Structures are given as C-alpha cells and as structure tokens.
C-alpha cells in the first residue's frame, strides 16, 4: 500500500471537534490554515492561505482536544494525505484532508516580538528558495 506523507505547520481556524464513532473509538477534527509567502519576479509580495482539514483517531485524542483551540500553532510532523467525498443534492464534492499521526503544539497568544513563529521561519525558507 502506498501513501502520500505530509509535514506542515499552521494555525487552527477553530476549536477542534471531538466525536465518538459507531464502534466506540474517538475521532478529532480541526482545520489548519497554512500560509505561503513569496516575492514575484517583479518584486511584489504575495500571500496564499491553504486550509487543510485534519483528523486524528485513537484513545489519546480526548486529552489533546482541550489544547487544540482556535489560533493555536500546530506542527503536523507525520500525516497521510486523503481524498474525502461528500454526496449532496448538488452532487459529489471532493476535498483533500490529512489524517494526522504525530502532532506538536506551538505556543498560543505570545507576542510576536518575543519569539520567532513557524510562519516567520517558513517565510524565510520560501524567500531563500525563490530565485529572482
């Protein structure tokens, strides 16, 4: 079996939602916004935000849910890319999601001047790799 692995960082768009599945296991879902910043060949700064639908499963997600609140920085250290489908009256809608296997929490609410954020580090990496 093959899988598409992903690693990324971002901020939670809303508090995580926890639910119990029919067989008794626990699932956690939360949206993560990850922002890409770059400079075009003309010197114009651009920003693009991508929303990722994340989910986690297992017994430990209950304790994690209280820490996953809106605005918290998360580092997805191991995740598997999935394609989900939703059927509705308008037709079938497909969207990408990530089943998170390993997650690290960043600090929430600390002043930006007191610490470099993951976004700042990612911005620097992106800017260093963009050739003018």
Automatic annotation (TrEMBL):
Biased segments, Low complexity type: 107-116
Protein name as annotated: Single-stranded DNA-binding protein
Pfam families: SSB
One annotated GO molecular function: DNA binding
Protein origin, superkingdom: Bacteria
Region (Disordered): 107-132
Transmembrane segments: none
Keywords assigned by UniProt, alphabetized: DNA-binding
InterPro entries xref list: NA-bd_OB-fold (IPR012340), Primosome_PriB/ssb (IPR000424)
